[in-house]
Amino acid sequence: MQTSIEWLWEQIPFEFTSKRSAFEAFEQAKEMHKQEIIDAYNQGASDAYPNGSYIEGNTYYQETFKKD
């Protein structure tokens, strides 16, 4: 599954940007987005399953967004 951050990277016309700085910003944005997904999942799961019977957010992220 492609994330919105990965889609954005594909849309950037590199002839108008510094590829190195754009790539560094892209990598930082991907990590921030990943953490947002994990945090949102953990919050939602803890609200739905207060006894903790859910998978952790990092596990959810890896299973949902892992690369093939």
- What would the principal axes of the Cα set say about the shape? elongated
Count of the separate structural domains = 1
Largest beta-sheet details = none
Portion of residues within helices: 55-70%
Report Rg.
15 Å
Number of strands: 0
List keywords for this structure.
68 residues; mainly alpha; 3 helices; elongated
Task: Describe this structure as you would to a colleague.
- With 68 residues, the chain is mainly α.
- The protein has one domain.
- Helices cover 69% and strands 0% of the residues.
- It has three helices and no strands.
- The longest helix has 30 residues, at 19-48.
In short:
This protein is mainly alpha-helical. Helix content is 69%, strand content 0%.
Fold topology:
Elements: H1 4-11, H2 19-48, H3 57-65
